[in-house]
Amino acid sequence: MAGRDRARFVCQACGAVAAKWAGRCEACGAWNSLVEEVATPRPGGLARPARGAVRGVDLVGLAGTTPPPPRRATGIAEFDRVLGGGLVAGSAVLVGGDPGIGKSTLMLQAAARLAASGQKVIYITGEESVEQVRLRARRLGLAEAPVELAAASHLPDIAATLEARPETGLVVIDSIQTMWLDTFDAVPGTLTQVRAAGFELVRLAKTLGFALVLVGHVTKDGAIAGPRVLEHMVDAVLYFEGERGHQFRILRGVKNRFGATDEIGVFEMTDHGLAEVANPSALFLAERRGHIAGSAVFAGIEGTRPVLLEVQALLAPNAGGTPRRAVLGWDAGRLAMLLAVLESRCGLRLSGNDVHLNIAGGLRINEPAADLAVAAALVSAASETPTRPDTVYFGEVGLSGEIRQVAQAEARLREAAKLGFASACLPLRLARGGKRLAPPEGLQLAEIGHLGDLLASFAVAAKTRKPDKTPA
Ligand code: TYD
Ligand code: MG
User: Fold this and answer.
1) What domain range includes position 12?
2) Pocket test for ligand 1, best of 76, 104, 105 (most atoms within 8 A of CB)
3) Which residues are CB-contacts of 180 (< 8 A; sequence separation ≥ 6)?
């Protein structure tokens, strides 16, 4: 066979193939992303079956049922919640996150829990030595758990071991970027290797019936290196995230074939590993100081769970030049829109101010329902009037300043009542034949239809003009 090993260059960001190297990928525009990889697998690689071995596929009807695959709860409730109830036999989960965020710690804890419950668990580390993992296990108090450990990265060796142990319940690969096959000339971590190793491991999980967890590092721009090639291959994609310097860690489901997405698990980092946080609202609000202008509590929903968060806004006089808009934990475009609506529809001018917005605790909010809480924090900062500390806010703001309905209002209100809040500021329910909200006992509702109503409650109309008149 004329199997020429022709060099080709594969963009590690988008997967485009180029014949020669260039500093910039022509397909996606990424810089320095082309890496030389060999196109043809060597003979003996992915073997084609002989003609006689092909036997066709079974076709079935749409009606009929298949029993759901068995699930195994790891015993770490926050992890199980994001998985949709536990690890599914024969499925593959990708756990992505920044280096140092705590992926190995979380997976070792989950592996130890599952092993202690009688499952056979194999932990393959390609990044650390056996001694390093043992050290971590000792620090976490898990050294006695019957986890089987190996430091390896050559996938055929690992596959041989797994095939010899069909009774295995969970296999953790830490990390997929270190795995390599000798069918390809590319170095570990390149698109070709990550894709091939991922594919092989997923195939093994399906045929042998173990649950597979692939740990993957996220590159700077947020893509799991070997860009998203794994995401479509696996059954669930979870991101482990958190701000460095904060003790909270959030495990977020972005894809799940066996459960709801957008579910989050909340953990707190401690000296002896990750502790589950069963009541995140209490934790996120723990450091809140009442009676400070520029702070408002948002009643949010993360997945199926209501979570209360503090939104903080700070206005500073602009020292000249373009005013700064610094946002942590929220969308900068959304903030720009809110500022524009506040100015055009409500006459609240903040264009002479630097605006800093922060979601306390390091959580990232994606919900438009946070608009009203952010607006309340901004208006509170502008009027130097604290929001009532026992009030929560939620509602989406439209371009004309109208406050729009958001989903799951009841769940948000229940959470607020549970944490001792006395009132909620929320979108006005128009009597469109719909049923009225029944607030939980002890919770007062302040329903508003327009941002102007919010400003009126702070009596900012008169006050805000002042800072604008004195030039900075
Ligand atoms: P590690 O699990 O190694 O992160 P990753 O696998 O994502 O790169 O954790 C990074 C460091 O943080 C490690 O030195 C241990 C420390 N750490 C704690 O001390 N407590 C914790 O709860 C966690 C999660 C990590
Ligand atoms: Mg690690």
Assistant:
1) 6-39
2) 105
3) 153, 154, 155, 187, 188, 193, 197
The CATH number that applies at residue 302 is 3.30.230.10
Dmax over CA atoms of the chain, in Å, equals 87
> Buried b vs exposed e over 271-288: b needs ≥16 C-beta within 10 Å?
eebbeebeebbebbbeeb
**Residue 105 in contact with ligand 1 by CB distance below 6 A:** yes
Please indicate, yes or no, whether residues 265 and 297 belong to a single structural domain of this protein.
no
> Do both 272 and 289 map to the same domain?
no
Query: Six-digit token pair at 253?
Result: 């489901």
Which residue's alpha carbon is at the smallest distance from atom 14 of ligand 1? 100
pLDDT digits (tens, 9 = 90+) for 392-417: 999 999 999 999 999 999 999 999 99
How confident is the model over 114-125, as pLDDT tens digits?
999 999 999 999
- My answer on whether 35 and 117 are in the same domain is no
Owner of token pair 């438009």: 368
Q: Within this chain, do residues 83 and 98 fall inside the same structural domain, yes or no?
A: yes
Query: Per the confidence metrics, is the pTM higher than 0.90?
Result: no
Q: From the CB of residue 410, how many other CB atoms can be counted at a distance below 10 Å?
A: 13
Shortest CA distance to 260 belongs to which of 320, 212, 302?
302
